[in-house]
């Protein structure tokens, strides 16, 4: 019997959809989308939050935080030192012990820097964080980070915000096959079909933001993504039929006249 929950470190979740909180047109739309998604994990960039200034608007004040786990991320960091500093700020605010390590190595593609990501994870693990690194679809880096002790791997499906879907499902499947920790597909999801496909590959979860926040109807898209993740996981657990080169009759042929 496959696990019905998502386990990240000491944290257990029923929902396998993680939702980013940026880019929404208003707090109201954001709240509605979060609600219908039934997510239990909300992620946000610490650098873009006024977590220490009570006079500034803060989406955290709009939500019942007892219903969610927060996953701060280190977006904006360009090296390990910056990522560690941002993570410590999030910890000091008392938000959560989980941290998504995001160290961008190229401003145009927004692809993560593998060396600086590894260095940041190494330090944050020493400091007791629950560490979830965002990486490209690098099978070897995923393996090395697992050996280091991270609590989940978050490979991108395609560049951040691109909406291109799963550009390299083959490599993602390699990462999933050799995983010893949860694999959460992060970045590049554009449609519910993309989310379902990620789950059908065997991913443990999907994190997305732009695909919902940038949709014509973000609330409707949030519900669609929820259902897609659920359907994809059910399909993976059920076990698909093998693909065949030729047709295979779905009705019995015994007893038919020749």
Summarize the structure in words.
Helix 6 runs parallel beside helix 8. 35% of the residues lie in helices and 15% in strands. By secondary structure, it is of the alpha/beta class. The relative contact order is 0.14.
List its salient traits.
alpha/beta, 3-stranded parallel beta sheet, 15% strand
- Count of helical stretches: 8
Q: How many strand units?
A: 10
Beta-strand percent range:
15-25%
| Low-pLDDT runs | none
> From N to C, what is the helix and strand string?
EEEHEEHEHEHEHEHEHH
Report the sheet with the most strands, covering strand number, pairing sense and barrel closure. Answer: 5 strands, parallel
Backbone structural class: alpha/beta
Instruction: Provide the gyration radius in Å.
Output: 20 Å
Oligomer: single chain
- Strands of the largest sheet, in order across it? 5-4-3-10-9
Task: Please write out the topology.
Blueprint: E1 6-8, E2 11-13, E3 17-20, H1 27-37, E4 41-45, E5 69-73, H2 80-92, E6 98-101, H3 114-126, E7 130-135, H4 139-148, E8 154-155, H5 169-177, E9 184-186, H6 192-200, E10 205-208, H7 210-213, H8 218-238
Parallel strand pairs: 3-4, 3-10, 4-5, 6-7, 7-8, 9-10
Antiparallel strand pairs: 1-2
Helix pairs in contact: 1-8, 2-3, 4-5, 6-8
